[in-house]
Amino acid sequence: MTHLFKFTSFKLALVAFYLAGYGMNAEAETLQTFTVAQSNAEQFITVEGSIEAVKGSLLAPQVSGSITVLNVKTGDQVKAGQVLARIDTRIANQQAVANQAQVGAARAQLSAARQEYERKKRLHEKLYISQAALERAESDYKTAEAQTKAELAQTGMANVQSGLHIVTAPYAGVIAEVMTEQGDMAMPGKPLLALYDPKEMRAVVNVPQSQIASIKAGSNIKVIIPAAAEAERSVTVSKITVLPTADAVTNSVKVRLLLPQNLSSVSPGMFARAQLPTTSGKLNNKIFIPSHAVIKRSELMAVYVVNAQGEPQLRQVRVGRQQGDNIEIFAGLYSGEKIALSPIAAANFQTKKLLKK
Q1: Torsion sign (Cα): 327, 329, 332, 335
Q2: Which of 39, 136, 158, 295 is the most exposed place for a label (fewest CB within 10 A)?
Q3: For residue 24, what pLDDT band results from cuts at 50, 70 and 90?
Q4: How far apart are CA 185 and CA 58, in angstroms?
């Protein structure tokens, strides 16, 4: 009885609302109807997630030092190899100069040791010095040669270190974030910039573990991005990747959906909704109607059912999940019945009928 009272109050409130909103002399609108039928559409699940770039990078230096040049800002388009930032190279340059000096000294020692060894070898051939003296000269020569190679390697390493003071773009893309300022201290491994390639984007959605096995691979999947431009707001994708791990907190699995290339209005972080077809076959013995035909008030749901005389009657229904623009009806409607697509037009029709009485 409680639910009946609530539903009757709901109906009376609707009539009062439309009387107030449209006036006592409102003309009834033409009723547009929808014939209820069992759906044979393919079943799918609706899941939500966000957009991310297929190729994205955090650019961090490999050396420490003060940032002397910062050439970019957030949102800038950059080319592959473009200089993005420079780190103070004074210490590295001084080290390179010192290494060059050490190489020069090592080469001078090597030249002297080589000459001494050649001289001792000639003396040994004439039996003027012992074998031990010759071996000592040869050892000094080889030691000087090894020292020279070591200094050359150290110099090469110093030159490489100097090159690491320049941060360049590894590929063409867009600067997503600048995490530093000119004059800040750069540290190895601490990101300075975030870069992504806007040509390839993907939607990453969270799918309940219980429904992962039913996802139909190879089917066309509809992805809706509400914040994108109208022409790119709804796209169709076919490449799907299910990640092998699940989130222990949400009990969901991430699924990646590769979007068409070169979407100009889509950027990382945007909200996305995907409709994933499942392998559970057809929706037998299930009824779907347009969701805008359903009137919602508190916990009550109702539709206007149009009888054989064309008169709309309010009827309570029990609804299920929504799929796109349609909503599933568990109870309250039967196949073959007609419902009013516009609750406002149906209410106007009833109001006009009441006023004639």
Answers
A1: positive
A2: 136
A3: very low
A4: 17
Q: Rounded to an integer, what distance in angstroms lies between the CA atom of residue 236 and that of residue 258?
A: 10
Sign of the CA dihedral with 107 first, then 111, 112, and 114 last: positive
| CA 260 – CA 203 distance, rounded (Å) | 11
What's the whole-model pTM score? 0.56
Sign of the torsion angle spanned by Cα atoms 294, 297, 301, 304 = negative
3-class DSSP assignment, residue 314: strand
Examine the domain organization and report whether 275 and 321 are in the same domain. no
Question: Do residue 75 and residue 172 come from a single domain?
Answer: yes
Nearest 5°: the CA angle 184, 185, 189 is 120
Instruction: Return the beta strands (E) in 92-148 as ranges.
Output: none
pLDDT tens for each residue of 48-107: 999 999 999 999 988 888 888 899 999 999 999 999 998 887 665 656 666 677 778 878
157 and 265 both lie in a single domain? no
Final residue belonging to a domain, choices 226, 252, 282: 282
Q: Residue 40: its pLDDT value, please?
A: 57
pLDDT at residue 327 above 50?
yes
Write out the two tokens for 185.
């201290």
Three-state DSSP class for 184?
coil
Nearest to 164 by CA among 92, 99, 79, 72: 92
Domain containing 116 equals 90-163
**Which element (helix H / strand E) includes 177?**
strand 173-178
* C-alpha span between 176 and 57 (Å, rounded): 10
